[in-house]
Design brief:
- This protein is of the alpha/beta class.
- It contains eight helices and eleven strands.
- The strands form three sheets. It has a five-stranded parallel sheet with strand order 2-1-3-4-5, with helices on both faces.
- A hairpin with a 3-residue loop joins β10 and β11.
- α2 runs parallel beside α3.
- It starts with 18 loop residues before the first strand and ends in a 5-residue tail after the last strand.
Length: 242
């Protein structure tokens, strides 16, 4: 694929703490877009090959996929069709340098949820990915509320019992991920995959330590527990004991 200058405009970070797959053969775009997505709070797997991208999409759980059409191995449209044929409902944003009605229709018929033409602004890409992830969790709003805990995903702010909390980036990501799945047990493996970007160098107790630190901050605003441990299973966020 020709490596034109596909990214223009000013960058902002409408964060959403979810796991993405980015399939793009341009090394420069892998670096630029991958870095922007991670800074925005996403955990990102990057591939430059359609065959590898298909394997990643089939063996991992992603909240959204950003997929270039022109890829080595198998192209993006073929990759997308195979995913849909195999029952995958993961939301997909197609990237392409071609901007004709026929191209857009072809992509949508293949199963794409959205379509972005190069060159694009990183700010727009992030906004579209953010919207797809909200759709993955059946939410049209930027606020997530669990009991007296309120998260604004657009501004990356968290309050509990009306008190603003000062959270590190990973703490915020962990809070939002648990809140999005409130009432459901989330395993340590799931937290590692979504929050820590598949870092193979993680210490075995990194999730437990992060939960402990987050609990201290939540407790300072309201001593009533909101994150509960299910031994041998993981953690569940709920305003009352499960």
């Amino acid at each position: 694929m020709a490596d034109a200058s596909p990214v223009v405009g000013r960058l902002s970070y409408p964060s959403f703490s979810m796991r993405l797959l980015f399939v793009e053969d341009s090394k420069r775009l892998q670096q630029t877009v991958g870095t922007a997505l991670r800074r925005a709070g996403f955990a990102v797997d990057v591939s430059g090959d359609g065959t590898e991208g298909l394997w990643l999409a089939e063996t991992n759980e992603y909240d959204a996929i950003v997929l270039d059409i022109m890829l080595p191995g198998i192209d993006g449209l073929a990759l997308l069709r195979r995913l849909r044929e195999r029952g995958s409902n993961t939301h997909v944003l197609l990237l392409t340098a071609r901007d004709t009605v026929a191209d857009r229709v072809q992509g949508l018929h293949a199963g794409a949820d959205d379509y972005l033409v190069k060159p694009f602004a990183l700010e727009e890409l992030l906004a579209r990915v953010h919207a797809l992830c909200r759709r993955a969790y059946d939410s049209k709003h930027s606020r997530v509320i669990v009991g007296d805990l309120e998260i604004d995903t657009a501004t990356r702010t968290v309050t509990r019992a009306g008190h603003p909390l000062t959270l590190q980036a990973r703490e915020y990501a962990l809070t939002e991920y648990l809140a999005r799945r409130a009432g459901h047990v989330v395993s340590r493996t799931e937290i590692e995959a979504h929050i820590y970007d598949g870092d193979a160098g993680l210490m075995s107790n990194v999730v437990d330590s992060a939960i402990c630190a987050l609990r201290r901050k939540l407790h300072a605003a309201n001593p009533e527990p909101i994150i509960h441990t299910r031994r041998g299973l993981g953690y569940v966020m709920t305003p009352s004991a499960p």
